[in-house]
């Protein structure tokens, strides 16, 4: 099920609601940001295996970065947003199927608009059961990727949940041995 939370202002600080994932009636959630990078599959694979092995849940976050869509007129902006939502829903469903195939996990999905960093922070603030953010590092010469760089370099010391970074070059078998 894909849900679209209400728009929120950008995360001005890193505080989040207390984590409740260990309380009765709650399950620890692994949050993965879904995008079109090759390493995204590594993060989904790892988080799916960890969720299955620990009795946790998986939350897949799709982020639509739609700069300029609000400046469009005569319904063009609405059409752009609808197309982006459809594309993101399809991408999320691909990874929902992947999580089910890899570990038998039925992932939840959420779509947000804005920057990835703000969307991650808003998701953590809105869901008290998110206990771990799982990212995968790119293997190219460009470095680990902009989201890994932004969250780890800027926020790591004050981030509200642990961040697991999966090396993007790990194979399924190597992740199975670690997860």
List the strand order in the largest sheet: 1-4-3-2-5-6
Q: Please count the beta strands (DSSP E, at least 2 residues each).
A: 6
The rounded Rg comes to 16 Å
Q: Which residues sit in consecutive blocks of at least 5 with pLDDT less than 50?
A: 6-13
Taken as a percent bin, the fraction of beta residues is 15-25%
How would the global form be characterised?
Answer: globular
User: How confident is the prediction overall: mean pLDDT?
Assistant: 86
Class by alpha and beta content: alpha/beta
Chain oligomer state: single chain
Distance between the termini: 26 Å
H/E element sequence = EEHEHEHEHEH
Number of helices: 5
- Portion in helices: 25-40%
Largest sheet: 6 strands, parallel
Description:
The protein has five helices and six strands. The protein is of the alpha/beta class. Helix 4 links the parallel strand 5 and strand 6 (163-167). Helix 1 (40-54) crosses helix 2 (76-103) and helix 1 packs parallel to helix 5 (172-178). It starts with a strand and ends with a helix.
Short characterization:
This protein is of the alpha/beta class and 179 residues long.
Secondary-structure map with pairings?
Layout: E1 2-3, E2 29-34, H1 40-54, E3 57-64, H2 76-103, E4 108-113, H3 116-126, E5 130-137, H4 146-155, E6 163-167, H5 172-178
Parallel strand pairs: 1-4, 2-3, 2-5, 3-4, 5-6
Structural features:
alpha/beta; 179 residues; 6 strands; six-stranded parallel beta sheet; globular
């Amino acid at each position: 099920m894909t849900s679209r939370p209400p728009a929120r202002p950008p995360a001005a600080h890193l505080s989040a609601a207390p984590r409740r994932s260990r309380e009765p009636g709650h399950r620890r959630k692994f949050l993965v940001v879904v995008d079109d990078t090759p390493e995204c599959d590594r993060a989904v694979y790892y988080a799916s295996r960890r969720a299955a092995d620990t009795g946790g849940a998986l939350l897949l976050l799709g982020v639509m970065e739609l700069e300029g869509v609000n400046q469009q007129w005569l319904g063009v902006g609405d059409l752009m947003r609808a197309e982006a939502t459809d594309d993101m829903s399809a991408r999320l469903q691909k990874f929902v199927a992947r999580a089910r195939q890899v570990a038998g996990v039925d992932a939840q999905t959420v779509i947000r608009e804005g920057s990835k960093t703000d969307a991650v922070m808003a998701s953590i603030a809105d869901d008290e059961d998110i206990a771990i953010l799982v990212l995968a590092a790119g293997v190219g010469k460009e470095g680990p990727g902009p989201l890994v760089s932004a969250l780890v370099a800027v926020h790591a010391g004050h981030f509200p949940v642990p961040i697991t970074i999966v090396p993007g070059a790990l194979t399924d078998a190597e992740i199975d041995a670690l997860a």
